[in-house]
Design a protein that fits this description.
With 103 residues, the chain is an all-alpha fold. It is flat, with a radius of gyration of 17 Å. α1 packs across α3 and α2 runs antiparallel to α3.
């Protein structure tokens, strides 16, 4: 299912790689904006956003990132395997570093 979503998104997306990277940055900013507003941060309260809005923006980030990954993998015939391998590698790295900063 994951690969189907990525493939559909990438094929329908007319943006260039550069435009998609900028879109990803924009969506990431919207996550930050929602979290600042939900936390009543000075200058952001008027937006009246909630953590549910932040979650929704996170999904936008994921969708743009998946479409971008698919476009970057245009030459890779094993995109799903590549994604799974990288996800496993990065998850292991995150787990290895979790808690080290607090010690």
């Amino acid at each position: 299912m994951q690969n189907n979503i990525q493939s559909i998104l990438a094929k329908r997306e007319p943006k260039t790689l550069e435009q998609m990277a900028l879109k990803l940055a924009e969506e990431t900013g919207e996550v930050a904006q929602a979290i600042l507003s939900a936390g009543n941060s000075s200058g952001s309260v008027y937006k009246k956003l909630s953590m549910a809005d932040a979650q929704e923006e996170c999904v936008d980030v994921i969708l743009v990132a998946l479409a971008l990954f698919e476009k970057l993998s245009a030459e890779d015939t094993a995109t799903e395997a590549t994604f799974s391998e990288l996800l496993e590698k990065k998850t292991a790295k995150w787990e290895a570093h979790m808690g080290k900063d607090t010690m």
